[in-house]
Amino acid sequence: MSRRRVLSIVCAAIYAFLLAPIVVVIIASFNSGAFLTFPPQGLSLRWYSTFLHNEVFIQAFMTSIRIAAVATGVSGVIGSMAALFTARAQPAVANSVRMAMIAPMLLPEVLTAIGLLFYFYALGIGLHHSVALIAGHILLTLPFVYINVSTALRGFDWSWEQAARSLGASPLTAFRRVTLPIIRPGLINGCLFAFIVSFDAFSTSFLLKDIGVATLPLQLFDYLRLNFTPEAAAVSSFTVFATVLVMLLAERLSGSQRRRP
Amino acid sequence: MSRRLLLMLPAALVLIFLIVLPYANIIVISFRPLSPDGAYGQGFTAANYVTVLTSAHYWRQIWTTIWIGLVTTALALLLGFPVAWDLARNRGRSQALRRAIALSPLLVGIVVRSYGWTILLGNNGVINRLARALGLTQSIIPLMYNRFGVIVALTHVFLPFMILPIMGVLQELDPALEQAGRSLGASPRTAFRRIVLPLCLPGVQSGCVMVFILTISAYVTPMLLGGMRVKTMPMTVVSTLIDAFRWPLGAAQALVLSLCGGLILIAFMRLTPMRWNR
Amino acid sequence: MTEVVIQDLTKRYGAAAAVDSISLSISEGEFVSLLGPSGCGKSTTLRLVAGFDQADAGKILFDGQDVSPLPPERRDIGMVFQSYALFPHMTVAQNLAFGLQMRKAPRAVIEERVARALDLVRLDGKADRYPRELSGGQQQRVALARALVIEPRILLLDEPLANLDAKLRDEMRLFIGELQRRVGITTIYVTHDQAEAMNMSDQVVVMFKGRIEQRGSPRDIYERPNGLEVATFIGQANFLSATVTVDTGRLMAQTALGTRPLPPESDASPGQVLSVLVRPEALTLTDSAAPGAVSGVVELAQYNGAFTEYRIRLADQETVCVQTPGPARHSRGVGVGLRLAMDPLWPIGSDA
Lengths: 261, 278, 352
Known about the structure:
The complex is a heterotrimer.
Chain A: H1 2-29, H2 46-52, H3 55-88, H4 91-106, H5 109-122, H6 131-154, H7 158-166, H8 171-200, H9 203-208, H10 216-226, H11 231-255
Chain B: H1 2-30, H2 47-53, H3 56-89, H4 95-107, H5 110-121, H6 126-133, H7 147-172, H8 175-183, H9 188-216, H10 220-226, H11 233-243, H12 247-271
Helix pairs in contact in B: 1-12, 2-12, 3-7, 3-9, 4-7, 5-7, 5-10, 7-9, 7-10, 8-9, 9-12, 11-12
Chain C: E1 4-13, E2 16-26, E3 31-35, H1 42-50, E4 57-62, E5 65-66, E6 77-80, H2 92-102, H3 107-120, H4 136-148, E7 154-158, H5 166-183, E8 186-191, H6 194-200, E9 203-208, E10 211-216, H7 218-223, H8 228-233, E11 238-247, E12 250-255, E13 258-261, E14 273-278, E15 283-287, E16 294-303, E17 307-314, E18 319-325, E19 335-340, E20 346-350
Parallel strand pairs in C: 3-8, 3-9, 6-7, 7-8
Antiparallel strand pairs in C: 1-2, 1-4, 4-5, 9-10, 11-12, 11-14, 12-13, 14-20, 15-19, 16-17, 16-19, 17-18
Helix pairs in contact in C: 2-3, 2-4, 3-4, 4-5
């Protein structure tokens, strides 16, 4: 009993450690003073209003959304297809495909970004029209879609598809009516994760962005190097709130159709 | 069969054109000569490697980077294992919440998290103020702009990558195995050490590998928490590429770091007998 | 009503033939079981009939029409899978409606037929449940109803009872048999459980190693197996060595347990040494002193509730298996008498 007690106290401390920096950012964002002081001098939404009127941040925010949406869309399709392939491939083939598909996550992000930077210059495309940026973000997001869809496919019974076929469904209809609804929670989760990862990405964006373009994390980083006002905290908190909101929404979406027990 | 291969085609193209070729290209570029009027010149030379390998300055930075990586990995394992155990074994109402907290660092941008740590660890940060208010100290405790701050923040940032794989193996682990151990006369501690621990080592291994790789290539966190006073290799690489515009040298720096990291990983894999091929 | 004809069907995986040139015809409304150990090719045969696998050679005809080029969805089959394969994201009613929707049936027709099918499998009231909310037996009946509601030409069942516990299995066995006779649909049933095959089928097809070993009524298969393999696979079997003799113009088999006639169709010649099949229930136990009984010693007695199974060692050191109704009356080591029923003995082959 006491052993369990010790474990739960240790875990509580670690959970506190995990939450601490996020919580302080949120608290700081409601500070009414001009400087980051702790505890806050008073509560206000002043810095949220400053942020929402700051054209630079808003523009960066929109850029981040745009890049994340494109990257997630591409990865969503490509990653799901690869997951479907893996689920039915021979074990040896499946294993190597799995390794290859999560490789982008295991390779150092900075190195991959450097590689793409050189590569797109060598191709003569350079850093224009966000091509390199989007390519980088596709690599960042692809493993997340792949892993989540693969997980959703783990309990998948291929006789479901066959049952649909035996009942008169074409391969496409069987996929649309049976396979897709069943992997949907995994797909939604994967895309969600992908979107968040892309939205928060730093190194890749830092090295591959078009000149004069900035995503929100880049803008924030830039700002933090020179300023210490709570506006940065407001921006950060805003993204945290948005993430939580989207997560809850997705939970609703995918939670309504739960997988088999 | 060929129809099914088509499913793999787009992903294969992405991997070939956006991973394999760019990585090959980095190697090529690292052998290019420096050029005063461009990113790199024509022809091939080993000069960049000579520059990196013969410079005590670079070696010091590589050592700093790897040292921080090793300490962070060990710390992440120390903190990650209990959490993974807690998440895998203690179900109940709060499980969803605990899970969300454990994974929260993944869902919050790396810039935001590092920023949070600057608020906590700064000279006028939460911890220092608290210590002074409680009368524990009169002077400023240096928590930031040193290795300590960098390591604390890095541990936090990458902890989920340790928790997830360990939790994965623990969940797959049949509790009956442990019970079987107990039924055969093992104490809880022995059952844990002889049965649970060996079986979850593959998860520990992949967690360590991931955290180590992520740490030695981290850029933002050391930048914000180290404030240029803790110089790690990725910072140097980025400044060589972006500020100095000397691509071949940057490529060589990055590859030497990767090679050193890779050698350490190989040694780690060799030293840990963790093969349960099922 | 559909007649199914399989001609020289072959399916290879690599060099090994999973199904090795089998031919079989199933008449309209017949219930045929494919019975055999795992890996004998019975499931592959079913998948070939369903269209999930392509044969390397041979034909499958439904009412004379070659269905080999047709994909599964155009063969008009009803299939029950071992895992049931109920769509987990659809309710019972939606599962049942799926096949009718594929056939573009009007909504009113779908509703009516789904209701009727649920009634048929006694699941009215469960229409809006999800499969996971049902018991194993209920899931099984949903799977059956889903296959039948589309009124397919043939019904294919792939070990449908394998995942049920013993009691439920007996219940479902009766249920499926009765349902099939009521609907009157041509049915192919794959199983490795001989009791299922014997209970339900009009005809049993025994398969070994990709080939059909024997085809016949359940009684044929049990009483007149055409080889050692079939005889041992179906039920318990004793094999006794016998010498062929002639008595008033009839061929007789002389065994350690007595002399009995051979079946009239036997082509054995006098003096030949044969192996004959004796089922355990053809033997009865008496006291060792009883007249006309052969003596032996009880080596093992296993009580099973309805009957007791004995292993008896005879004087010539051969052992035989005997089943008697009720609890054990003779304990281990005791001498007993054995008596063999007067029925003809079925020869299994010459004793080489």
